[in-house]
Write a sequence for this structure.
């Protein structure tokens, strides 16, 4: 199959061909504000199956259904919790997905066999147009091969999906670069199943109630199974081994440089994910800046692109600084930890010796 690309030059570029493909039960990759999605008619089992086949995605990993209008949520939910309405008013269209009980119109192929369905209204003109012009609800996971970093540019989609899908809508680089926040509304207390741009605090402010974080997401060595099936898989991962290094900036630089030296002596090609402030401090084969340390939006936007660029450079091992930023740091670290398969080196300062102690500790 030849994969065609249509460049979205303006908000009125003709996308009739894409809408026709969706109506015919075929696949179309399209931009959203989070990452590129791989879309198909959400209410057709055969169309949903094609998504799993093209991605190589395990069939128990459900898809997110994209809508353009709140009534479309009501059309596929067994019931719509009051919280969904409040949250939709505040955050839709936007990077938030809600899980609600599904009704009989949604095939189990779309929900990975679950009785619940994940729904989101994307904040991207092309995505909304595709839903409206096709007249369909569109199931769309990220448009990468399963396990790879999510695509944030059409070129990433082509790299993973060339010859596997008929059409990619190219809307340029996405704005956010991390997948949506997923919020489960099927229990008494709403629970975040995947952290994202919309944070726990933002959700709590709007709902005026506590929002929990899935315990399966907390801590590197948690043995608990996350509730979102997709979160249990190794994910977002580059081909190279990725290792995170945490600690004070100067110590992290020293540690990474020592590790790089060792690896290079062993004949390995090395990469470092640095910040604008630290990029000149490293001596690896390839050093890339993810953005300024304080600019968490830039860090989020560049993460997956960098992982893909290191793969193109065929490095064997990537060392990354960690990014505990105030707002979306949790989402950034969640993705980085999964990409690294939870390989983290924590650099701790050696405890001060007795005669070095400060006065107040005596
Ligand atoms: P992706 O669109 O590739 O980012 O993946 C969608 C994510 O949503 C995966 O992690 C899924 O496991 C999760 N998801 C989708 N539907 C449900 C559901 N009904 N219950 C829990 N998690 C879901
Ligand atoms: Mg994905």
């Amino acid at each position: 199959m030849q994969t065609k690309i249509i460049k979205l030059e303006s908000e009125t570029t003709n996308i009739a061909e894409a809408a026709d493909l969706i109506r015919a039960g075929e696949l179309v990759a399209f931009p959203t504000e989070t990452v590129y999605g791989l879309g198909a008619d959400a209410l057709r089992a055969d169309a949903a199956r094609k998504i799993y086949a093209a991605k190589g995605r395990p069939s128990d990993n459900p898809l997110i259904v994209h809508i353009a209008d709140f009534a479309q949520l009501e059309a596929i939910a067994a019931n719509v919790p009051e919280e969904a309405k409040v949250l939709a008013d505040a955050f839709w269209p936007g990077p938030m997905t809600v899980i609600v009980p599904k009704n009989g119109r949604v095939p189990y192929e779309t929900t990975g066999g679950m009785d619940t369905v994940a729904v989101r209204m994307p904040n991207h003109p092309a995505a909304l147009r595709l839903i409206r012009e096709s007249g369909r609800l569109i199931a769309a996971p990220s448009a990468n091969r399963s396990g790879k970093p999510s695509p944030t540019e059409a070129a990433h989609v082509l790299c993973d999906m060339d010859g596997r899908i008929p059409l990619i809508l190219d809307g340029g680089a996405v704005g956010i670069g991390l997948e949506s926040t997923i919020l489960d509304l099927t229990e008494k207390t709403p629970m975040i199943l995947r952290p994202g741009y919309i944070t726990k605090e933002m959700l709590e402010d709007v709902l005026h109630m506590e929002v929990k974080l899935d315990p399966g997401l907390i801590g590197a060595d948690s043995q608990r199974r996350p509730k979102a099936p997709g979160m249990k898989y190794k994910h977002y991962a580059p081909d190279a081994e990725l290792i995170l290094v945490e600690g004070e900036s100067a110590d992290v630089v020293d540690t990474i440089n020592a590790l790089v030296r060792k690896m290079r002596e062993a004949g390995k090609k090395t990469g470092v994910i640095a910040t604008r402030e630290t990029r000149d401090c490293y001596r690896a084969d390839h050093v890339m800046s993810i953005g300024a340390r304080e600019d968490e939006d830039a860090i989020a936007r560049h993460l997956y692109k960098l992982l893909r660029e290191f793969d193109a450079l065929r490095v064997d091992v990537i060392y990354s600084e960690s990014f505990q930023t105030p707002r979306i740091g949790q989402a950034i670290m969640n993705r980085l930890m999964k990409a690294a398969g939870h390989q983290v080196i924590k650099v701790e300062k050696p405890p001060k010796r007795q005669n070095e102690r400060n006065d107040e500790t005596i």
In short: The first helix runs from residue 16 to 23. Confidence is low (pLDDT under 50) at residues 356-362.
